[in-house]
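Chapter review: from sequence to fold.
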Amino acid sequence: MIKNPYSGLKDIPKNIWYLSIGTLINRSGTMVLPFLALYSTSELGISAGNAGLVLAFYGLGAFISAPFAGKLSDKFGALNLMKLSLFSSGVFLFAYSLVTEFYAFLILSLIWAIVNEAFRPASMSFLSSEITSDRRKTAFALNRLAINLGMSIGPVIGGLLSTINFSLLFYVDGITAIAAGLFMTFIPWQKLSSISSPPDDDKPAVAEKEKVYKNFKFIYLLVAIVPVEIVFFQHIGAFPLFVVQELGYTTATFGLLVAVNTVLIIFIEVPLNDAMRSWLDWKSLAWGGILSGLGFGILAFTHDVSLLILSIVIWTFGEMIFFPATGNYVAHISPEKQRGEYMGYFQMTFSFSFMVGPWLGTLAFEHFGSVILWTGCLVLGLISAVMMVRLRK
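The C-alpha cell string follows.
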C-alpha cells in the first residue's frame, strides 16, 4: 500500500494551519511588488534605472524592518504584530496608489516595506513557538507552500488587472491584506503557547536570554547563508536576462520555465521536508547549498531547454531543502523569549541578499559573461555548503 506523502500534515496544529491560510489569503493578492518596476516606468514615467532604485528602496525598508519587527513580536506577541502589519499595509496601499511624484514614491516604497515586511519575522517566530522541533521543518514547508500558492495566483491576476487600470493592483492587494488581517482576528485560535521541544542532539544549550552578537553560532550562520542566498536571487536577476537575451527564448518561454519551480514547490516541498525531518539541520543546509550552487552552475554549459529545466529542478530542490532548514535551525539556537528578535536578524540576510544579489548578478552577466557568472554561483553555493558542514561541531 502506497503511503500518502502528505500524511505528516495530520499532526500539524490548528494554529499553524490558520497562519498558513491567512498567509495564502494575503499572498493571493500580492501583485504590487512584482509589477512595481513596470508601474514605475509606465505610469510614473521614470527610467529603468530609477525603477530599479524603487526596488532597492523597498529592499532597504525590508532590511531596516526585520530586526525591529522581530523585537516587537517578542514584546507584544507575534500574532498581534502580524495583524498590525496586514491592516497597516492594506490601508497604506490605497494611499500609495495616489502618489505620482518620484521622490515621494521612493520614500513611500521604503515605508511600505517596513510595514509590510514586519509580517515575516513575526510569522516565523509564531511557527517556531507553536510546534515541537521534530515537526518544525514540515510546518515551515507548509507555510512556504501557502506563500507559493498565493504567489502563483496574485501576479497572474495582477497582469490582467494592469491591462485595465494599474491602480486596481494597489486596491486588490490592499483588500486581500485587510481580508487576511480580518481572518486572523476572528479565527478561533487555540490557546497560544510556547512549546518546549523534546531533547535534541542537534540543539545546543541556550541561555534564557542571550545578546545576538554574543551568539557566535548564530552570527556564523548569518554569514554562511548569504553566499547561497545571493545565488538563489539570480532567478530574478541574471537568470531571466540569460534565458531571453543570450539564449534567445521568448518571455513566454521564460514564464513557463519559472512555472517548473512553482509546481515542484507546491507538490513536493511539504512531503520532502516531512520525509527529511530526522535529518540534522547542518546536513540539510549543506545539501541545500550544494544543490543551489550546482543548479545555477550547470547554466555555464546550457544552451537548450532540457538543460534549463534540469537546472531549475536542481536548484529548486536546493531551495526546498535549504529554507525550511534555516528557519528550523534559527529556532533551535535562539532563546524562546527572543525568537522573534533572532528571526528578525535572520530575515535581514534575506533582505540584504535581495538588495545586492540581482544587482551583482546582472553586473557580472554584463561585464564578464554568463560562464563566469554561473561558475561564480557554483563557487558561492559550495562556500555556503562547506561552512554549513562546520556547524556539526
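Two observations follow directly from the output. DSSP finds 15 helices and no strands in the chain. Confidence is low (pLDDT under 50) at residues 196-205.
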